[in-house]
């Protein structure tokens, strides 16, 4: 008799039985949540396009456009954020091919998820440090157009990253407890979103570097 | 141990508590009705504001009873001040465009019927759906608050141009906390709409029943789907714009405010900003927004027309492709709101071409609707009256757009009542007619009781004739150069036009009173209307295959299977001259 | 109900078109050199729109009359040609209209915005501020003094923020509350916004252009008939927007010279 406990992957949470609907709806629901993530990414991209065009137009009319040297910690933060994508890839290698996870695998997944979470938080802390460094130079939100855009771009990115962090916390919560389940689709969606946050940050960093 | 046969998954279970049933519902049908109720409240308030504006224009010294209590500063003794007129104007536009025209045809009916029409049990993300309604509701509350703060609502119009809207209270009354509340409200509205649009798109793409290919979706479903794609991208631009506006107002940034402005004898502490940036961002959202307002009504009207005339449209595919091209072109035309704004005049020419081109799909659709009537057998119900009225109104409103699309003519007509006539005809009348058509058509399905047809017809005639009487004259006023957004007409020039203005005001008050018939019909029918059969109009789409009102999970335990498109009218079906989408019977003839 | 609907529709369509056809509401007389092209564009568009409007409403009325509540058992039929005819018709009708109006409309627009200013044009600067227009002429030296917003002092009639004490060119600038121009002479109007967005609109001149804070905009026009014409603000600028106007006073060159002499002596 084995004493190993298995954590099912992609099973729905254990809840009282309801009226029957065939399993097509689970697959459909997973498909919908995948579409949902991509639609959200599309919308967020559009928002940042709006911010970008604001930057271009504002530069055109500016009397006060100067040059803003990016605090070097931004590059460190970039690496931190991208590492978070790597840790999620480590999770996907475990989770994508299995229907059940043994306790070692659960521990591994939990570890990588926590690592991603930590990296995300570290990124935000690092961004905050960048802000304090700018403030120390007397560059605040309203100081000039360049500084305004710096704070707006980085602030908006952090705001959206917090959404990804919330999703991570939710995933980690799913693994905790004796009746733990782990929806593969939820994980994959979170991972897609997280990778997008990295790509978005790279784009923003490029814009900040070349335009500010 | 194995994955046991996966437990059948519901999107959510049946609601049990009062709160879950009626307040924080996850059910798309309840949410749709909540949006409808919100839109109803907004349109009633917006209409009352328009009455106040019209009364003030022709009887400037009229004391409105009670108004002095709401705003001591804005309407002392009930007499509307110039600034309060502008506040009423701003709130009227904001309420109508956002809380009525985006909520009613799109969020209300779309939420209710899109899942049903594609054969789904609910929207893809019921929790997001609930959040989207309550966010929109919060936006409404925040906006209304502006009426009750001492300085009053903002006076910068629903378009809220910078720097007037950005510099704060130096620029005038209502531009302090009033404008802040406006910006926060609209930002919240954007968030709610984005969540809603997300839901519509994911649901349409992924939750269609077996056999429900994209081309078998009813035209109104297509309209909601296209609208949600537009809304997703449009509101994603307005939200950043509102955020930047809030920063300029509260954090001292200068996105929209240049240097050297002297307002109320104070040199404003900003520099380098661009007022045109606000206009570009706003209208990049604002033009697609008006298509968000009209496309669902076009879809609803197409849907109602077919059931009413007992034949399919000449080509549903052409209608759908036309809506798609309108959606596509809508992104390229925003500069036509800015022809004389000071932007590069070459840009004005560039924008005018896609603007004129949009006439083509709009004309195609109108000709298809008209041509489809040939050989029809129209059942003249209230819904049909409004659907046909829509065609008339859409033509009337559309032709004036033709003038405004040309920059050289716009030099003369910009900012006159001609523009006001144009957008009221298309948005304030045509789009609303789509909402009325949908209401009379679907009320029975949603509530289990039919609306009174006689009252519906009375409502139609008052509204149809009344709105022509109100808004057609706006074009004449514009042609002679009557400027808009003026709280009072002080020039001798205006003297001869006052009788026409009086005519408009009286028409507006009568038409407004006519809406009471509609309100009465709504409430009376809700409780005492004739019980609604499952398919009162002999319709073919899936909403007519379920009870009135539908159960919490729409189709019960059955997953519908679809065999046909929804255009099987005028054919020999087992139930009559139509075949329903979920009926496996073969289509004979037609 | 169908027949009633059709009749009401026809009445409404005719009633709507009547004031236009009877020229009851027309733009005031054109006193500009470029306005003729605009007016022609407007009446061409009106003709085509009128045709489209009446045609569509009559067709709708006719179909409603004929095809409502027909005898029981009548079979529905389809329009010959189907959707294809409609699509082709739309493309041809609208396509040609659009192209024609768009292409020809360019000329009217270009005459306003893309023609180079004449070398001997009269330079005037207009300032729009809550809630009045002021106009500045360069004076005998032909130069405008710089503007200093911090020096604006309405109480002492320093509307533009001039500093004659320190700026030589500002000393002879002529400031007036009306826009006086000589007839048949091109005017180059430079537009400065003092506080928020405003707009400059003279119906008879067929001219409308926004003042944008922070942007140096200008436009030019030539008035062809003496008289007093309203200049209206057409961009919502605050509570006094409805009352913000000035007058364009078009005079003979003689009268204008006299006016200018008077103004110079007043400064």
Short recap of the structure:
The complex is a heterotrimer of chains A (212), B (590) and C (267). With 212 residues, chain A is mostly helical. Chain A has 5 helices and 2 strands; from the N terminus they run E-H-H-E-H-H-H.
What is the mean predicted local confidence, pLDDT of chain A? 85
What percentage of the residues of chain B does DSSP assign to strands (E)?
Answer: under 5%
Total number of helices of chain A: 5
Return the CATH class of the domain at 73-212 in chain A: Mainly Alpha
Instruction: Please give the alpha-carbon distance between the first and last residues of chain A.
Output: 66 Å
Assembly type: heterotrimer
Q: CATH class of the domain at 23-256 in chain B, please?
A: Mainly Alpha
State the shape of chain A.
Answer: elongated
By helix and strand content of chain B, what is the structural category?
A: mainly alpha
Write up what this structure looks like:
The complex is a heterotrimer of chains A (212), B (590) and C (267). Chain A has helices spanning 24-61, 73-95, 103-136, 145-175, 184-211, and strands spanning 7-8, 100-101. Helix content of chain A is 73%, strand content 2%. With 212 residues, chain A is mainly α. Mean pLDDT of chain A is 85; it is low at 11-25. Chain A is elongated and about 60 Å long. Chain A has a domain at 73-212: Cytochrome c oxidase, subunit III, four-helix bundle (Four Helix Bundle (Hemerythrin (Met), subunit A)). In chain A, strands 1-2 form a two-stranded antiparallel ribbon. Chain B is mainly α and 590 residues long. Among the domains of chain B are: 23-256, Cytochrome C Oxidase, Chain A (Up-down Bundle); 532-590, no CATH class. Chain B starts with 17 loop residues before the first helix and ends in a 62-residue tail after the last helix. Mean pLDDT of chain B is 94; it is low at 1-9. In chain C, helix 2 (35-67) runs antiparallel to helix 3. The mean pLDDT of chain C is 93. The radius of gyration of chain C is 26 Å and the shape is elongated. Chain C starts with a helix and ends with a helix. Chain C folds into 2 domains: 2-68 and 85-113, no CATH class; 122-266, Cupredoxins -  blue copper proteins (Immunoglobulin-like, Sandwich). Chain C has helices at residues 2-21, 35-67, 82-113, 253-266; strands at residues 122-129, 132-137, 174-176, 179-182, 186-193, 198-202, 207-211, 217-222, 227-232, 245-251. With 267 residues, chain C is α+β, with helices and mostly antiparallel strands. Chains in contact: A-B, B-C. Chains B and C meet through helix 4, strand 1, helix 9, helix 11 and helix 12 of B and helix 1, helix 2, helix 3 and strand 7 of C.
